[in-house]
Design goal:
Serine Threonine Protein Phosphatase 5, Tetratricopeptide repeat, 19 helices
């Protein structure tokens, strides 16, 4: 490529244009910063130092000094929501809508803020109406997320499925787990109405949405068991091993109950023992210990607990061993040994306190029983299949 002499003449011109553009940007930045009231910068400083009360005072002063700035109003409204002063946020944004002449895009922005206020205040009907009115592409995704939260809280599962499906397409984030649980919730409702056909259809939809939906197979098994189709119930529950085997301990009592109804308890115990050997689940140990104690007596239960204690030391299993030994010694009238065993069992129970809980991995909420949806943060499948000691 040949060097063109005229390029040398053009270089100063390009430099001058770049310098001029930089000066214009700098002047615009300075003009914008000087237009902001001093209270705005005070508010920012208070926010940085987590002095929210003083930040609210400063931003309120800034809004009074610059009533035309939507950004200042939004910052103040967000602070009100964060502090739980939702009524003040609602009043602020309603005043903007009623008193200011707004451009269409500005009106949409204020409406979005007001919808968040109503949602925070628990005024779900008003929030829903406003979020549904935000049909602009820029607001559609956050509006759908808020609407999904509203539909779940109001237990409008069909609308939740529709919103989650649309949100999945827009955001690219999968909602398969959530949608499967929405179908399960619909199935529970249909079950209460004794509409078994509809229950099966909805649970099939749950499995179509998420093939690993354990809850759907649990419910399908329950339907079969209630209809005395125990072989079908067992076959359905067995599928859970190929979905999420960690849930086998949760449905082990159901499996064993169906085997008992078929007079095949021994076969059921063998199946659970095979699961335990493969997956080493604490709930399976508990179920097998109680079943062995009931079916085969304290000697067999003590032997089972001792073997499990050797394989996987646990205070809970030690308590089971001591309980079985106490029953054996009580039957044999070995009062001295019995007292010692009972003392040891009391010490073990004091150590563990029998305080086990299901810990939500999202918010840390502790539940005594397993829930498919966390009662605190409403996350689905956030509670593990096995409880842990507190």
């Amino acid at each position: 490529m040949e060097f063109e002499f005229w390029w040398l003449l053009a270089l100063p011109l390009f430099f001058s244009l770049g310098w001029l553009a930089a000066r214009v940007d700098l002047k615009q930045l300075l003009a914008e910063s000087t237009a902001l009231p001093a209270a705005y910068f005070k508010g920012l400083n208070f926010l940085i130092t987590n002095q929210n009360d003083k930040a609210i005072e400063a931003f309120s002063e800034a809004v009074q000094a610059n009533t035309d700035s939507l950004e200042l109003h939004f910052a103040l409204g967000s602070l009100f929501r964060k502090r739980g002063e939702v009524d003040r946020a609602i009043h602020l944004h309603l005043n903007l809508l009623n008193k200011k002449i707004l451009e269409p895009q500005q009106k949409l922005a204020v409406t979005a803020e007001l919808a968040q206020d109503y949602l925070k205040a628990g005024l779900l009907d008003r929030a829903e109406e406003l979020f549904e009115s935000l049909d602009d592409d820029r607001y559609r995704q956050p509006a759908l997320r808020a609407l999904l939260e509203i539909y779940v809280r109001e237990r409008e599962w069909e609308r939740a499925i529709k919103a989650a499906t649309e949100l999945e397409k827009i955001s690219g984030v999968p909602f398969r787990v959530e949608i499967s649980h929405y179908y399960c919730e619909m199935a529970v409702k249909s079950k209460l109405a004794n509409n078994t056909h509809q229950v099966r259809l909805e649970l099939d939809c749950a499995l179509d949405a998420n093939k690993n939906c354990v809850r759907a197979n649990v419910l399908l098994g329950d339907i079969e068991a209630e209809a005395n189709n125990h072989q079908a119930a067992i076959a359905t529950w067995k599928r859970i091993e190929f979905q999420k085997p960690e849930y086998l301990g949760l449905i082990a009592p159901k499996i064993l109950a169906s085997y008992r109804a078929l007079n095949q308890t021994a076969e059921g115990l063998l199946l659970l023992q095979a699961y335990l050997k493969t997956y080493r689940l604490a709930l399976l140990v508990n179920v097998l210990y109680e079943a062995t104690l009931a079916e085969e007596g304290a000697e067999s239960a003590a032997k089972f607990a001792r073997n499990e204690l050797i394989k996987m030391p646990s205070l809970n299993t030690l308590d089971q061993l001591l309980q079985a030994r106490a029953i054996v010694e009580s039957n044999q009238l070995q009062n001295t040994h019995l007292q010692d065993t009972q003392l040891m069992q009391q010490a073990v129970r004091h150590a563990i306190g029998f305080k086990t809980a299901y810990h939500c991995v999202q918010c840390g909420f502790k539940a005594k029983y397993h829930h498919w949806q966390c009662p605190a943060c409403n996350a689905w499948e956030a509670l593990p299949a096995e409880p842990t000691t507190i």
